[in-house]
Amino acid sequence: MLYVAVVHKDAGSAYGVHFPDVPGCFSAANDKQGVVDRAHEALALYFEDEKPIKPRDLDAIRASGDVDQDLADGAILVLVPLTGPKQKRASRSKTSGPDRGAGIALGQNRNSKVKR
Hints:
- The protein has helices at residues 35-46, 58-64, 68-72, 85-93; strands spanning 2-9, 15-18, 26-29, 76-81, 105-108.
- It is an alpha+beta fold.
- Strand 1 (2-9) and strand 2 form a beta hairpin.
- The radius of gyration is 14 Å and the shape is globular.
- The two termini are 27 Å apart.
């Protein structure tokens, strides 16, 4: 399952990540290279003892208006996978590397108005 994450950064702060479909699940990373890994870990921990929530797709989230203000403020959207238990254990045993999660930057609207 892929969850849409909102990645934002204010001057002098870490990169913050939250998930519109998973209230209360958030993370942060000191640099942009760690954002997807941290978001992936946050999802895995959040759903460790709970059944995953079915995520909306990108089009549904954008159509809902839930991320309009974030995008207007310069945030980007990233797709973050929630892996199964076997994959989760394997990714925890790795200390680094690209296999711990995948993300796709989907848009940034720093200088454009968001349509409602």
